[in-house]
Amino acid sequence: MTLRKITLAAGCLILVACSEPEKPASTDIEPEAATETQVSAAEDTTKDTTPQTPAEPEVLEPEHPALPATADIWQSPTELMVSDVLLNLRSELWLNSMPVIGDDGTKPADKLHASVKLQSTDMQALPQGIEITQVLLEHEDKQWLVNENLEIRAEGELSLEVILRGGPEWVPGSKVNIAVNILHGGQEHTLVQHDVILSQVF
After folding, report:
1. Would you call 187 exposed, middle or buried from its count of C-beta atoms within 10 A (0-12, 13-18, 19+)?
2. What whole-number distance in Å separates Cα of residue 116 and Cα of residue 150?
3. Which residues, listed in sequence order, are joined to residue 116 by a DSSP beta bridge?
4. With contact defined as beta carbons under 8 Å apart, do 167 and 112 qualify?
5. Largest CB tally within 10 Å, which of 108, 156, 178, 186?
6. DSSP letters for 12-66
7. Domain for residue 1, yes or no?
8. How far is C-alpha 181 from the geometric centre of its chain's CA atoms?
9. What's the CA gap between 121 and 99, in Å, rounded?
10. Taking all residues of the chain, what is their mean pLDDT, rounded to a whole number?
11. Residue 26, domain member (yes or no)
12. DSSP E strands: which ranges in 55-98?
């Protein structure tokens, strides 16, 4: 009987020993390491993750040729060869001071009038299709430009005459420079005449 009790007690001890739970493996993390991990994670979330757009390359605008200064016009030739015909200008300028009374009973101002002729120098016919596009008159620091509604007369085949009326009241006896732009065959040329005397008609 005693032996049986001893056997039962030994079996109970074995069962208790087998049923004791195993201790879990240590998962402790040092506090400093955990703190560093959290800080690193916080820093990653504050970083700007927006994709950067690459800077566009600078585009250089093509340089446009500068328009010629007014002073350069007067360096143009006084004679010009166009289609084997040598051309020049012959001009007359005057102030109309005739005693004419206007519609309102007042005397009109002494306005400048001009006759500007484009002609060949050797009595040859002008090239076919030649056109006058503008006339510029200069006196000291004053200018008169006419490039619309030009009154042009053809004198046979030898010359083209431009009639200008109602210009500025420049001083009689003044010297005036004249520049004429002509168009022929799609090309534009400038022809000048210097020191034309402004006369006065009474």
Report:
1. exposed
2. 11
3. 91, 162
4. yes
5. 178
6. HHHHHHHHSPPPPPP----HHHHHHHHHHHHHHHHS--SPPPPPPPPPPPPPPPP
7. no
8. 24
9. 37
10. 76
11. no
12. 80-82, 85-96
Q: What share of the chain is helix, strand, coil (3-state, %, to 5)?
A: 20, 40, 45
Range of the domain at 83: 73-201
Dihedral over Cα of 44, 46, 50, 54: its sign = negative
pTM across the whole model = 0.62
CATH of the domain at 171: 2.60.40
pLDDT: is 159 or 31 the higher one?
159
CB 151 within 8 A of CB 132: no
Confidence of residue 34 (pLDDT cuts 50, 70, 90): very low
Residue 36 lies in a domain: no
Asked if the structure places residue 187 within a domain, the reply is yes
**CA–CA distances in Å: residue 74 to residues 62, 128, 178:** 29, 26, 9
Please give the pLDDT value at position 201.
83
Structural domain count of the chain = 1
| Whole-angstrom distance, CA of residue 161 vs CA of residue 116 | 6
pLDDT bin (cut points 50, 70, 90) of residue 167 is very high
Residue from 135, 87, 78, 132 nearest 112 by CA: 135
Distance of CA 56 to the CA centre of its chain: 22
pLDDT tens per residue across span 90-132: 999 999 876 666 555 565 566 899 999 999 998 899 999 999 9
